[in-house]
Design goal:
Layout lengths: L1 H11 L3 H12 L5 H14 L10 H19 L17 H17 L3 H13 L3 H8 L3 H20 L10
């Protein structure tokens, strides 16, 4: 038991920052990212024996987090934070940065899943196109196309005068 915990933690510690960035981007509007991280780590630890290649632990965590988030999204509709009027000027640069990140994550959440995932993996987590293509089981050309289309849509969403609104059926 102690060996399992030590091995799991030794594999997890180097990828913690990447995994945290992934969860922040993917969980926005649906659940607190720390909750997603904790639930994912609990499931991953309980199913750790199923991981055949220890160098693939980050992909293992991404898969679990994606399934947990999909289950959460089926249960609830998105809950966005109150809008912050554009006329407010922040004295605290950290608060302004948080507002910008919230706006980015909100816009990301409105993209089609394949484009959103490709952008998160490439721009936020820092994977290469080749790594994303292996993980998603798609060609590199398809991943580049998802990135290109995702960037275009994201730019359009971010340039809209009004903050993006989610249209739920």
């Amino acid at each position: 038991m102690k060996e399992k915990k030590e091995l799991f933690m030794s594999l997890y510690e180097p990828i913690h920052d990447s995994f945290e960035r992934f969860c922040k981007a993917r969980a926005y509007g649906y659940m607190p990212f720390r909750d997603l991280m904790q639930e994912t780590l609990l499931v991953a630890y309980s199913k750790f024996e199923q991981l055949k290649k220890h160098d693939k632990i980050l992909y293992f965590l991404f898969g679990i987090a994606t399934r947990l988030l999909a289950n959460q999204r089926r249960k609830i509709s998105p809950v966005y934070q109150d809008e912050i009027p554009e006329s407010i000027h922040f004295l605290n640069p950290e608060a302004e940065r948080k507002s910008e990140l919230d706006h980015l994550y909100k816009a990301l959440s409105l993209l089609p899943a394949d484009q959103r995932d490709a952008l998160i993996y490439f721009e936020i987590v820092g994977f290469s196109v080749k790594e994303i293509s292996v993980f998603q089981k798609k060609s590199e050309v398809a991943v580049r196309q998802q990135l290109s289309r995702g960037r275009q849509k994201l730019l359009a969403l971010l340039q809209e005068k009004n903050e993006p609104k989610n249209i739920m059926p």
